[in-house]
Design a protein that fits this description.
The complex is a heterodimer of chains A (about 220) and B (about 350). Chain A contains nine helices and five strands. With about 220 residues, chain A is α/β, with parallel strands linked by helices. The model of chain A has no long low-confidence stretch (mean pLDDT about 95). Classes of the chains: A alpha/beta (about 220), B alpha/beta (about 350).
């Protein structure tokens, strides 16, 4: 069983492996973490998720860009692949859920994929509907999963017009569903005018915005 | 509406030659909107050169902009290099999009060959369109992405991004092919229509800092962009209209090294302030921009009028000239009056007395 000092040493190596886009080290260290009896959930939170939070900061500060974020996420997933099967179910029972997809008519998904990575790193359960998602699918998936948030992305000025329609369809089924929007042609003002509850300017801020949005809605609804 | 003292052709010619113009020229990045405007399906802009040309000619007549009809789309290169594209057919689609990429794995790169510019992909339609341009008194034009954008149309963008750091040699291979392909197309157009008679637009949306760092721009985008532009100009292309799409502020010192011709046009979006564009390019090139398409679609006429006023006043006295232009393609569902508002702003603020 690893000592506290050894545990922190391994957390640092795991953390650095993600920051440094080192998939192999992330995988190897995750194996070492398990073999030394360290709790997998602890490692995911304090090694992998903590690193991705830092990656998100680097991205928001324009020190890391899309290539770096993708490679960091590859290291994250390499570690998660090893650690996730060893996480006890009870530790995950309170996970928040988010549905995410690029709206109908739009095949651009790189931004959506980056946001998905950040939410998974923050231990949310992500229901990824993909791209060019028929609007009814958002409604059906929300009925199925009762997620905390439905998040939609659009990169085109034509496809962004699908968003207010999708929000109307979602609210017709569930008045209180929380909706967050993102994508290059959008602004917070446009998102609000469409009926959304939140807006994320980039992947680095998405999780923070989601949590703040849910907090805000909880207070408003008493 | 004030009456112009020059025809669009006279105004464009004067702008390009550094001669006085009557008013700020109005260039439009406009395709799918034209189809809807005249009652054609949006897809006809890309699938039917005759309908495409006339939709653009009539819309130009109606709204009074100076730029000439053209044929092109942002995902160009995917089909030509062996992938598949999907033409727009849904309510929320405005341009061809990727169906399947030619390159998804390393092994796919080895299979790539330069397209046959006389028959591959959309090139036959583009050539048909160019013949129609000439028949109707317009310059034939080649409108394609820059090498990096074309590379991102050949190869899945996520993969391209990873290779930038992990397998740079593969990215260089794609950039080499993309650069050579644009030169092949241009050569073919020049052979068909004559030296000095072909216009070129190069759009570069993928190299934005929303995707890659300035460091990667310098290493991968810049060398091929410079090479491409130098060779195009050496072929007798008089000027290049270079659309620098998106957030490129940190790339501007590099863009300033790319030759655009005499006088080239640098088109920018809302992310680049007109004053900043003048600082980097204004001594040598015409600046065009920077009205945000999303605001054209969702904004009020007053908001658009004010944005245009600010852009015109910032750019009007740029050393080599300025044209009011959208920062990217006019959305298909732009309220007609919003587009008209751009011309109205020029009439009120854009005259040179």
């Amino acid at each position: 069983m690893a000592t506290e000092e050894r545990t922190q040493e391994l957390m640092k190596v795991l953390y650095d492996a993600v920051i440094n886009m080192d998939e192999d080290t992330a995988r190897d260290i995750s194996q070492a973490i398990l073999s030394e009896g360290i709790d997998a959930f602890y490692a995911v939170n304090n090694g992998l998720a903590a690193a991705m939070e830092r990656v998100g900061e680097l991205y928001a500060n324009s020190e890391y860009f899309v290539p770096e974020l993708l490679l960091c996420s590859d290291a994250l997933y390499a570690g998660l692949e090893v650690l996730r099967p060893h996480i006890k179910v009870s530790e995950t029972s309170t996970k928040k859920q988010i549905i995410i997809g690029t709206v109908e008519g739009d095949i651009h998904d790189i931004g959506k994929n980056l946001v998905k990575i950040m939410f998974e790193a923050a231990s949310w359960t992500v229901h990824d509907l993909g791209r060019d998602v028929n609007l009814q699918k958002f409604v059906d998936e929300q009925k199925r999963t009762q997620s905390d948030i439905v998040a939609m992305s659009a990169l085109m000025t034509t496809s962004m017009l699908a968003m207010p329609k999708a929000i109307e369809m979602l609210r017709a089924e569930d008045r209180d569903v929380a909706v967050m929007l993102g994508g290059a042609p959008l602004t917070r003002e446009i998102a609000t005018s469409y009926g959304a509850d939140g807006y994320a300017e980039n992947a680095g801020e998405a999780v923070k915005e989601a949590n703040e949005m849910l907090e805000r809605l909880k207070k408003q609804r008493g | 509406m004030r009456h112009d003292r020059m025809t669009p052709a006279e105004r464009l010619n004067a702008l390009l030659n550094g001669e006085p113009v009557d008013r700020v020229p109005f260039l439009s990045f406009i395709l799918g909107f034209c189809a809807k405007n005249v009652g054609y399906p949006v897809v006809s802009i890309y699938s039917d050169p005759v309908k495409s040309l006339w939709a653009q000619v009539w819309t130009r007549e109606q709204y009074g902009y100076d730029s000439e009809p053209f044929y092109g789309y942002a995902s160009y290169g995917g089909w030509e290099f062996g992938g598949e594209i999907k033409l727009p057919d849904g309510e929320y689609e405005q341009a061809p999009s990727h169906g399947r990429f030619a390159v998804e794995t390393e092994a796919d790169i080895e299979k790539l060959i330069l397209p046959d510019v006389s028959q591959d992909g959309m090139l036959p339609l583009a050539m048909q369109f160019s013949h129609l341009q000439v028949e109707n008194g317009f310059y034939p034009s080649v409108v394609v992405g820059g090498p990096f954008t074309i590379a991102g149309n050949i190869c899945v963008v996520d993969t391209l991004c990873r290779w930038l750091i992990k397998k740079p040699e593969l990215v260089h291979r794609l950039l080499r092919l993309a650069t050579d392909h644009v030169l092949d197309i241009t050569r073919h157009w020049i052979d068909t229509f004559g030296t000095g008679k072909v216009n070129i637009q190069i759009w570069e949306p993928l190299a934005t800092n929303q995707i890659i760092s300035p460091r990667l721009f310098e290493k991968f985008v810049l060398p091929y962009q410079i090479e491409l532009h130098e060779k195009l100009l050496a072929m007798g292309i008089k000027y290049i209209l270079c659309h620098i799409c998106g957030e490129h502020n940190s790339n501007l010192p590099y863009w300033a090294q790319v030759p655009m011709g005499d006088s080239g046009i640098v088109s920018v979006g809302r992310e680049i302030d007109i004053g900043t564009a003048i600082e980097y390019f204004g001594d040598d090139y015409i600046i065009a921009g920077n009205i945000e398409p999303a605001i054209l679609q969702t904004g009020t006429p007053l908001q658009i009028y004010e944005l245009c006023r600010q852009a015109i006043e910032a750019g009007k006295h740029a050393p080599r000239g300025y044209a009011l232009m959208q920062g990217c393609e006019v959305p298909v569902n732009t309220p007609p009056y919003n587009l008209y508002t751009m011309k109205k702003a020029i009439d009120n603020f854009g005259w040179y007395e």
